[in-house]
From TrEMBL:
Protein's UniProt keywords contain Signal: yes
Signal peptide: 1-20
Organism listed in the record: Belnapia mucosa
Segments forming domain CHAT: 668-984
Protein name: CHAT domain-containing protein
Gene3D superfamilies linked to this entry: Tetratricopeptide repeat domain
Length: 1011
């Protein structure tokens, strides 16, 4: 495997793993905890009224002999809430001061907590004591330390603040706080004053640590979405108790931010990192600032900002090193052995990871490449010196070293290191994503060495894990698998059909966009219901509960609000109940939601005159796979993502100019894209009436109907050989989406035909100024001021009403087209919903964060807020629609620098709400052309044609009539090509319903998790 091929996947993926390696291990990793399952002595109640027991505990460091050591467990928490140690020796004031201020016990305490100066006080009965108000470095929870003159000598104790009454009782030889006949405890009064503002218990601390540990484990398994949930819950718990701006929330905040970055949610991660930057320097954890620099570096590298990421890594390296004893840094023999200071351990682990990534980055730099091996070797040395060199950390280290070896041209070493890493992952994290990633990298290495059979064994083992865990990999990791399958098919024609089908299944292991998962979720709801309204409602409630919980967590990220914690708790309970209901009502829902489908299932779903093509684009090449008539054909593309994006952007620039008008159309990009993507499979596509396209990456930014199958005269575009002349085109996000939607039947059962909305009244200038203040949103205000009326949409909607036989009350125009009208229109009873208005997408308005459609403002509204119906508002709709017509501007998503996505947030929101198909626009539409396209499409659909065939017929009408009854310019794709069908919409009833149902069930069963 060449260094250049191997470099990018490792650079992207391996930074994601450092979170696990430098997260602070649980306290039990340094101080042995006594099992709580054995017998214990009652120790009274803590400040929260929870029962506590005392058990024999571990001996702690002390300058005086230890007579007895006990650990206290309260409220079912499995870690000690407190430790109480009886010492032998004098208990005079001088000794109490010495113990509270220095010595071995105080040194041990200071490693774990940060304490204020000791306060002289008394326990119940007037017993002299010294109280230290502390904060746990791990999580920032309030902590108390106590030195007292016990009955048999001095007593030292420490624990969470709520355990103070129990510590006091044990120190004084009692099992409860002061009774009615005893003197009051001054120490307890001091502690209670602090606890009064801290509504937490030992169980809260335990729950926080449990959530952080779970988050770490999920991150190690590279399940970043689930890790996000764990860290969000941990942060919410902390913020409820400590407050949103408490600096000790920074650890959970950073972990959450990095996991968001790992999922590509850069903007959300950046906002949390910014919050963390204001907190880290004041946190009790001394490693916080180093870890922040480390995680920010990883996020920058994830974004491709290598120079900035490298600088931040060096900053993190210096900060970590400052926390480690010099002897350990230098590798002296005298400095060897297990490190016991948790801060030093965390810093050592962090430094090990940082140096590994520095070595990895330098290996990519020809000028500094020679320094890389030493850095990587030193990272392993630091790891060994922590005494915590686990199998998982070794596996990660080996995988990173393999990447560096490949970059340095040491292919044999890289291969050996990957093989070793795969074996380690199989032991340390069997059946999880890290093992699958390493197996795919191993397969690519074997393939590069000419060992195709061995490569296939590795790829197939990794694929089994991905299917069992229902997860995906980046495209560039999957492409070598397709390359090997193609080579094997060429070498063995007899096995070629089976190998092509395997390639089709393998292609679905790659995933680029969250759009796929989002649309699968909506289509799965339809398929799981199978016509049963009760099942559909149960699944919908679960999805709504997920959405509500995400919204609440986002609200917490934005700032505290009264009652937010109670709302989060209620939402979590509601989600748990909804999931239980779905498990009973639709047992196959989870499998259907997350499964891929094989080529046979797709073949059954397709009609005889249909074909499906799915595409994958890598850095320097790609693949297109076609399913038709039960067979799979495949072609390797000499087209990478960057070149595809250039062609798409050039094509779009020729369709529409920066001012939103028809551009100077150049046929060359449309011809080049067809030649690269579909021409290799032209013979197999011959005679297909409908082409189902699964685009990838920048290809999502165009409607495929405007590709050119041959040369075209720019002056006679109406007669050009557009792809739409050969096929009706359906765009879907994944093959599984098509199979699922078709398994639900040919169309909606809603009783009403149509609801239409158009000709909105724009907000006035005063309203816009209040919604877009000129000091913050001047650019937004200028753009919003340009949202003029679209009078042509009135005619468009009225004609659609006439064609569908809808009633006058089924349309809302002008001032009646409001957000309230949308909510009141009973849209769940409509088969077609038509929205003819402006749309605003992310990036167009900085002060309007969500994609939105524009409606008339509410009568008498002071501002323009009610004129923007956001994607999050649309999620609340309950639809059963064949088709949503978004006759607006750019509802399918602009091309943009990277090609964009054909499904904008608006389109995704409608899929979530229950639409089967969306007719969206890829650029600003012409009023007359849009009216003709929509009207003729609806006329054909009312006559029984499918949504895809209807749209094609309308587009061909514009092309064929250009220069005849219509102006010549209508042959320009600006006029006829903006609309695209996403999803299936309405279609003719399939001839093989039983077979299709069986194929959906088989696909779900094949993707069931391994037990």
């Amino acid at each position: 495997m060449s260094p250049r091929i191997m470099a990018r996947p490792l650079l992207i993926l391996l930074p994601l793993l450092a979170l696990a390696a430098c997260a602070r291990p649980p306290e039990s990793a340094y101080v042995a905890a006594t099992a709580t399952t054995g017998p214990g002595d009652p120790a009274g109640k803590d400040a929260k009224g929870e029962d506590c027991i005392a058990q024999r505990g571990t001996a702690l460091p002390s300058d005086l002999p230890i007579a007895r050591s006990r650990e206290v467990y309260c409220g079912g928490w499995t870690q000690p809430a407190a430790r109480v140690v009886q010492l032998r020796g004098p208990g005079d004031a001088a000794q109490l001061d010495a113990l509270a201020s220095g010595g071995l016990w105080r040194t041990w305490l200071d490693q774990r907590v940060t304490c204020a100066a000791p306060q002289a006080t008394t326990l119940s009965g007037g017993i002299p004591a010294r109280l230290l108000a502390c904060t746990r470095k791990n999580g920032g929870w309030p902590h108390v330390a106590l030195v007292a003159a016990g009955p048999g000598g001095p007593v030292v104790a420490d624990g969470v603040a709520t355990a103070t009454p129990v510590m006091e009782g044990l120190a004084a030889g009692q099992t409860s706080a002061a009774g009615p006949g005893q003197a009051r405890s001054a120490a307890l009064e001091i502690a209670v004053r602090r606890m009064a503002a801290e509504a937490f218990s030992a169980n809260d601390v335990g729950r926080y640590e449990e959530l952080m540990n779970v988050g770490r484990e999920l991150n190690q398994a590279e399940n970043f979405a689930a890790a996000e949930d764990a860290y969000r819950a941990a942060l919410a718990l902390q913020e409820r108790v400590l407050g949103r701006d408490n600096p000790d929330t920074v650890t959970a905040l950073m972990h959450l931010a990095l996991n968001l970055s790992n999922q590509g949610r850069v903007q959300e991660a950046g906002a949390l990192f910014a919050r963390a930057s204001t907190l880290a320097t004041r946190a009790a954890d001394p490693v916080a600032t180093a870890r922040l620099a480390h995680y920010q570096a990883l996020s920058l590298l994830q974004e491709g900002q290598e120079e900035a990421g490298l600088a931040r890594l060096r900053d993190a390296e210096a900060r970590y090193a400052a926390l480690i004893p010099p002897s350990m840094l230098q590798g002296n023999a005298s400095g060897g052995g297990v490190v016991t200071d948790p801060a030093a351990v965390s810093a050592m682990l962090g430094l090990s990871e940082v140096r590994r990534y520095l070595g990895r980055a330098l290996a990519r730099n020809s000028e500094e490449r020679a320094a890389a091996p030493a850095l990587i070797a030193d990272s392993r040395r630091l790891l060994r010196q922590t005494g915590l060199e686990s199998g998982l950390l070794v596996a990660r280290s080996l995988r990173t070293e393999a990447g560096a070896s490949a970059l340095l041209g040491r292919e044999d070493a890289a291969s050996r290191q990957l093989e070793a890493a795969a074996r380690r992952f199989a032991i340390a994290a069997p059946g999880e994503r890290p093992e699958a990633v390493t197996l795919f990298l191993t397969g690519a290495g074997r393939a590069a060495a000419g060992r195709r059979a061995d490569a296939l064994a590795a790829f197939r083992a990794g694929a089994d894990i991905l299917r069992a865990r229902q997860i995906a990999l980046p495209i560039n990791l999957v492409l070598p698998y397709l390359d090997v399958l193609d080579a094997e098919a060429t070498a063995s024609p007899t096995n070629a059909p089976a190998l092509r089908k395997e390639a089709f299944a393998a292609a679905q292991l790659a995933q680029r966009s969250n759009t796929v998962r989002f649309v699968q979720q909506a289509s799965a709801r339809i398929g799981a219901a199978g016509g049963d309204a009760r099942v559909a409602e149960a699944v919908r409630k679960l999805q709504d509960a997920d959405q509500a919980l995400r919204a609440l967590f986002a609200e917490r990220d934005a700032g505290a609000a009264p009652g937010l914690d109670a709302r989060i708790a209620a939402a979590q309970q509601a989600r748990a109940e909804a999931e239980s209901t779905v498990a009973a009502a639709a047992p196959g829902y989870r499998q259907l939601l997350l499964s891929a489908v094989d080529a046979d299932a797709v073949a059954v779903a397709l009609a005889p005159q249909e074909a499906l093509v799915t595409m994958l684009l890598g850095r320097d090449h790609g693949w297109v796979l076609l399913v038709r008539g039960g067979a799979v054909q495949a072609a390797r593309l000499n087209l990478g993502e960057v070149e595809a994006a250039r062609l798409v952007n050039t094509l779009r620039a020729g369709v529409v100019d920066p001012g939103g008008r028809p551009g100077r159309f150049d046929p060359a990009p449309a011809q080049a894209l067809y030649a690269a993507l579909l021409a290799p499979l032209a013979s197999a596509l011959e005679g297909a009436e409908t082409l189902v396209v699964v685009p990838d990456g920048p290809l999502l930014g165009i409607p495929f109907g405007l590709l050119l199958t041959g040369p075209a005269d720019p002056n006679a575009l109406g007669a050009a050989p557009w792809l739409i002349r050969r096929h009706a085109v359906v765009h879907v996000p994944s093959p599984q989406t098509l199979v699922t939607l078709r398994g639900a039947g040919p169309g909606s059962t809603a009783p009403l035909a149509y609801a239409g909305f158009g000709d909105f009244n724009p907000p006035n200038q005063a309203q816009l100024v209040r919604s877009f203040p000129v000091d913050r949103c001047a650019a937004d205000a200028r753009l919003a001021s340009g949202l003029v009326r679209l009078p042509g949409t009135r005619i468009e909607v009225q004609e659609a009403q006439r064609l569908t036989g809808a009633r006058p009350q089924d349309i809302r125009l002008g001032a009646e087209f409001t957000a309230a009208a949308l909510r009141a229109a009973d849209l769940g009873q409509r088969r077609i919903i038509h929205l003819a208005t402006h749309a605003l997408l992310p990036g167009e308005l900085s002060c309007l964060q969500e994609p939105s459609i524009v409606v008339s403002p509410q009568a008498g509204a002071a501002d323009a807020n009610s004129a923007f119906v956001k994607a999050s508002d649309l999620l609340g709709l309950k639809l059963n629609a064949d088709l949503i017509i978004l006759s607006a501007c750019n509802t399918g998503g602009p091309g943009g620098a990277g090609g964009g996505e054909a499904l904008s947030g608006l389109a995704r929101a409608f899929f979530y709400a229950g639409a089967r198909g969306l007719m969206v626009t890829h650029w600003a539409v012409d009023d007359a052309a849009a009216a003709l396209t929509v009207a003729d499409s609806l006329r054909r659909q009312q006559g029984g044609a499918s949504s895809a065939t209807s749209l094609r017929g309308a587009q061909l009408l514009l092309l064929d009539e250009a220069g005849k009854r219509l102006p010549d310019i209508f042959g320009h794709p600006f006029f006829w090509a903006p609309f695209a069908l996403i999803g299936d919409g309405r279609r003719a009833a399939p001839a093989r319903t039983a077979a299709l149902d069986a194929s959906v069930q088989t696909a779900a069963a094949q993707s069931a998790p391994r037990m």
